[in-house]
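Q: Structure tokens for this one, please.
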Amino acid sequence: MIFDNKFIQQRIEKAKLLKEAGFNPYTNESKRNCSIEKYLNVNSDIAESEEKRDENRHYIVSGRIKLLRIMGKASFVKIEDESGMLQIYVARDNLPEGFYNTMFKKNIEVGDIIEVAGFPFVTGQGELSLHADSLTLLTKAISPLPEKFHGITDKEIRYRKRYLDLIMNAEVRKTFQTRSKVISLTRRFFEDKGFLEVETPMMHPIAGGANAKPFVTHHNALGIDRFLRIAPELYLKRLIVGGFEAVFEINRNFRNEGMDTTHNPEFTSIEFYWAYKTYKDLIEITKEYFQYLFEHLNLPTMLPYGDIEVNFANFQEIPLIESLTTVGGVPAESCNDKESIIAYLNSKNITVKPGMNLGQLQGELFDEFVEEKLIDPTFITEYPVEISPLARRSDENPAITERFELFIAGREIANAFSELNDPIDQLERFEGQMAAKDSGDDEAHEMDSDFVEALSYGMAPTAGQGIGIDRLVMLLTNEHSIRDVLLFPAMKPLNGDEAEMQTEEN
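A: Here is the predicted structure, written as tokens:
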């Protein structure tokens, strides 16, 4: 049972008695006129005054009780709202007769949400507090908070019960406030650049726009399957065909793949498409975007991330094949033909999937020996065409594409390219992907004949990019698991025994 706990039952009984006595422990009325942060700011001068108090100032604040020290005739309470923590001094003789002993001492507990009216004063220990002259219970918490005042350390509980994590850990709230700011700033940056925000479907007839395994759902009215989108790319490029020249979407994507510290089945990214631009223009706007975020978030150029520091004044560009030798230490003779790459990977005890082409093998070398070494922001450019089914070929070297991926702190943050707008080339790329799918590659791109037809009407030269918001927030908040920047990450279901153990622990 959810409430089969003696401590919870005791609180339920108190709530019941309050109702019987005419007090509503779940009121919908509040007279709060000041946040805690504002209270502390506007009354900071009290500490410099001779009296250390000002009874002519009157405030009403509300918050959750985080600490309660009940004494004989007076008590100290610490309450917290979204903006901060405040100490409340509650004295018996300043409250209505009988309230302190019959209501406050017997029924108010840690976890309850209360409203307090009073005046500012500074304690003997120098802490700006509020001297209460009235106190109202707004919400009775029937589940007690964890005893550890400094928060929950068990990450499984934190992720499964994020509401409890947010109650107990102020730093967690700051992380998600930063995430919200990043999304807001991202929207503002692109709007100021003249981009139009759009919305595209989240259920697709074809799982397109990326090499990934989709989630499948069923549309009852149409009697057909649909795929939760793995990327909005092909719809956004249809809009460029239609005549929009700069569009973006802050989107949720869904990929039915593994979970680890950088992957969650649903994730957030921004994708934007810019007509009459190339991937080189995207490199420049990406630098501007990071500068914009850092300025508005007041972040230092040298940003700590775990045991390393990332220098955001040091953006670099390296072609992929060059990075294999200069960064990854792979011998040059082991980079440019299939047999040599396979032999090198085997010598490092790395198993090679059968049927991999040259571009895929070069991508494997990059993943194994280069990626984690890219600490400062690095644009890896000139990707093989075999692993870039939607990117434009280079005019100088048709074996590579006009593409980059941005890596920071050893992780991919963004993917971009000059878009392929040749409908015949796109059709042939899709056919190659279908052949790969028939050979067992379940992440190969599906044929999207409608998109090919859209290209046949003519798409202006265009550059497009996707930036992973979750990984970006991880980087900016020094978090090392994607679950720490998602309010409700995907979790395996608990069995009955595990659920019961967690309830008892709390």
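A few notes: The chain is about 35% helix and 25% strand. The longest helix spans residues 170-192.
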